[in-house]
Amino acid sequence: MDLDLAAFRLNALATLTNGSSSGRSSGSTTDFMTTLLNAQTALISGAGTSSAASGMGSLLGNSTSQLNSVLSQLEASNSAFMKRYNARVEAIGDEAEVLTQLRARMAELGEASDGLGKLDASSSDGDIKAALQDFITRYNAWDSEFDPYFEDGALLDDNQAGEVARFSLRREVGSIFHGAGHGGYALGLTDMGVTFTPDGQLTFDEAAFDSALANNREAGVQTLNNMAKAFGDAAELLSSDGHLLDRRIANAERAVAWAADHQSEVEGEFGAGAVTARLNKALYR
Fold first, then answer.
1. SS3 assignment, position 119
2. Each residue of 77-123: pLDDT tens digit?
3. In b/e form, how buried is each residue of 74-101, taking b as 16+ CB within 10 angstroms?
């Protein structure tokens, strides 16, 4: 932060101070700003250290308490900024970590649907039910693991890449197009007793499933095959290199890497004592 920025911030503080309801005179603040700006002008014009020092000396002689007060406010402002900055960098790092985990689990979940894709009409009722229950269990575990991150105000709230991934997989499970017009039950898995709860968990009605399998075994198995294929393809695409989720992770990792490389510079600009040190350096160089 150079002297121009210091003057700008002091002007802003002066404006706020003069606009208060106390109705006090702005004269002392104006004199304070004039002295500082005169010191800056001396530096810019090349008048030399003595003129700058004289301006600062006048400032210190007449308004020492005011100078200390304003510098204190600037230091406090920097301190608040650094806290927000560090917290944001940490949150971006956490985001990259969680999205990386989400991506890995999503790929695993896509593979978990393979068992449903291998079923055929000759598979036993027990094998068909077991394969479906295994998929439901693994899907619900995945949803439970990451759902807290998407709550209002949580780490991934309004995170487009994460939301798209979750929505896409949920859509594939509940889609009617795995049945209607594709040899399966008209409403897809819904006609086979598989539905979503309001919080996104899958439920399994065994009686409805047994009935559907008994009424039309071929349609039931085809519905499972269709869903498994679509779900697996979606999981593979969403977790692939270059897709939205991958790009979001890469951007977050680059941001964290940049912050790590420039942390000392940021602290030198906004860390404790930076305002006073840089202002003194500019005035007494």
1. coil
2. 888 888 898 999 999 999 999 999 999 999 999 888 999 999 999 99
3. bbeebeeebeebeeebeebbebbebbee
